[in-house]
Amino acid sequence: MGTKSVFVAACVAMSLLVSPASAADEPGVSATEIKIGGIFPFSGPASSIGLVGRGVVAYVQSINDRGGINGRKINYIAMDDAYSPPKAVEHARKLIESDEVSFIFGQLGTPGNSATAKYLKTKGVPSIAIVSGSSKFTDISEYPLTTTGLVSYQTEGRIYAKFLDKTLPGAKYAILFQNDDLGKDYVSAFKSFLKADFDKRVVTAAYEVTEPTVDSQVVNLKSSGAEALFVAGTPKFAAQAIRKAAEIGWKAKIIVNFPSGSVGGTLKPAGLENSVGVIVGTINKDPSDAKWNDDDGVRGYKAFFAKYLPGADFENTSYLTGYMQGMILEQIIKQCGNDLSRKNIVKQAKSLRHLVLPTAYPGVEVNTTESNNMIWSQLQLQRWSGSGWEQFGGILDASAE
Fold this sequence. Notes:
Helices cover 43% and strands 16% of the residues. It contains 13 helices and 13 strands.
C-alpha cells in the first residue's frame, strides 16, 4: 500500500471514529426531523390538566401540516406518567436513552419535574417550558438547562395574598393545598407576604392527590371562621372544594390557582352557579367568552380547535395552554435556525423578547433572558360572573407584586 493509500485509509478510519461522536452532539436531529419528548398526566388524578399535553400534540401536528420549521418536521413523543414521579423518571429515561430525543418540552407536573430534573441535568438534556410554577425551578444556577412555562407559584401566591390583604384587611384566610411542592410554594408565598401575621390570620389544610375527596378538609376550614378560601392544587380538587363550600353554605371569597382556572376543567364540575365570585389570575383570553368573538387570535384558536381537537371540550382552557406552549416551541425552533444543538436550544429559549401570543391577555408578553428563565411573569386577575370572566385591576407581575 502506497503512502497515499495509507493516508486515505487513515482518513476513512478517522471519519468512522469521528462521525458517531459528531452525531451524538445533536441527538434527535436529522436533515428532515427533530425529535422532542414530553411527559404529561394523561391519566390519573391530574388528568384534567394533562389535556395541556393534548393541546401541544395537536399544535405540533399543525406545524407539521404547514411543512414543519426550516424544512424539518417535529416528531413529538408524548408519554403518560399518570402524575406518578416514578413513571415520569421511567419515561424520561426511555425518551433520552431509547428514543434519543433532542430535548424535553412542556413536561407537566411539579412532582414529575422534580423527580426527573437531576437525571436530565446529568445527561445534559434541556427541559424547556416545563408546566410547573415551583419557585425552585427559577434558580438558574441549579437548573441551567430549564425554562418554566407557568408564572411562579411564589409570584402568583404573593399576588393573591396582597389582593386579600387589601380587600379583606385583618380577616382570617384559609388555604387548602396539595401536599407537594406545588401546594407548599403557595403557602410559603402567603407566609413571605404576611410575615408575623401568618400564624394569626391563616389556617391551612393539606390533601394528598390519592385522596378521593377534600370534603372533610373544606368543612374543617369553614369552622375556623375564615372569610376567604384559597385553593392551591389541581382542577379535580379545586372543583370539589368550590362545590363543598356551596353545599355547606360557606360564603367565603374563593380564589383558585392558575392551573385550576379553567371553566371546563374546574368551574363546570363545581357547578357554574356555585362558582359565582371565584377569582383567578390568568395569562390568556378566555376563548369561550363572547367578548373575544371578533378577536383575531381567538378566531385563529377556534379554527385550530375545530380542525385538530374535534369533539374535545372547548371550554377547557388546558387545551389553550397547550396551544400557547406549542407556539412557544415553534418560536424557539425558528430562532434556532439550523443550529439545533442543545446549547443553542437553551440559548434561544432564554432569548424570547417581547413575544406576544395572539391568545395572551392584552398586555401580557413573553420575555426570557439568561438571568430570567420564566416564560410568563404577569397575571391579570378575573372574577367569574356566572356566565363569563370579568377582569379587574391592572396587569400584575413579578416585579410589582
